[in-house]
Amino acid sequence: MLAVAVAAAGLCGCGASEPRLDGARRAAAAFERALARADYDRACTLLAPQTRQQLEDDAAAACASALAHEELPASGAVRETQVYGRQALLRLTGDTLFLSQFEHGWKIAAAGCKPAADMPYRCSLKGG
């Protein structure tokens, strides 16, 4: 697994408006609900374009089929949300998600992320 280039320390929620924080949380919750229901078509619509493309390229399959074979952890409740600029980090009970904000809302840029000692997060689902 490759390291995610965005370090958590660089994602500060300081000054982020409540609507921006809520938008990131809603996108993450929608993604996690779709995964829990095995609605992979819906989950794929919530992925950032580069993440979706990387998933399809790695699996040599359409997004929904490829996502069905990913072993992403169950997320649980949101413990912390940090937003800086167009990037967000959500720490959940069982997972950490990175999101990017696009013209039409927040999208999942990386999931299945675990911190690595003195290094960036390592994520099982991420963009190129």
Explain what this protein looks like in three dimensions.
- It is a single chain.
- This protein is globular.
- By secondary structure, the chain is α+β, with helices and mostly antiparallel strands.
- It has helices at 18-36, 40-45, 49-59, 63-68; strands spanning 78-84, 87-92, 96-102, 105-116, 119-126.
- The protein has a five-stranded antiparallel sheet.
What is the number of E strands?
5
Helix/strand order: HHHHEEEEE
Rg to the nearest angstrom? 13 Å
Overall geometry comes to globular
In round numbers, the mean pLDDT is: 85
Number of helices: 4
Task: Provide the spatial order of strands within the biggest beta sheet.
Answer: 1-2-3-4-5
What can be said about this structure in brief?
The protein is of the alpha+beta class.
Q: Top keywords for this entry?
A:
alpha+beta; globular; Nuclear Transport Factor 2, Chain: A; 33% helix; 5-stranded antiparallel β-sheet; 4 helices; 128 residues
Indicate the topology:
Layout: H1 18-36, H2 40-45, H3 49-59, H4 63-68, E1 78-84, E2 87-92, E3 96-102, E4 105-116, E5 119-126
Antiparallel strand pairs: 1-2, 2-3, 3-4, 4-5
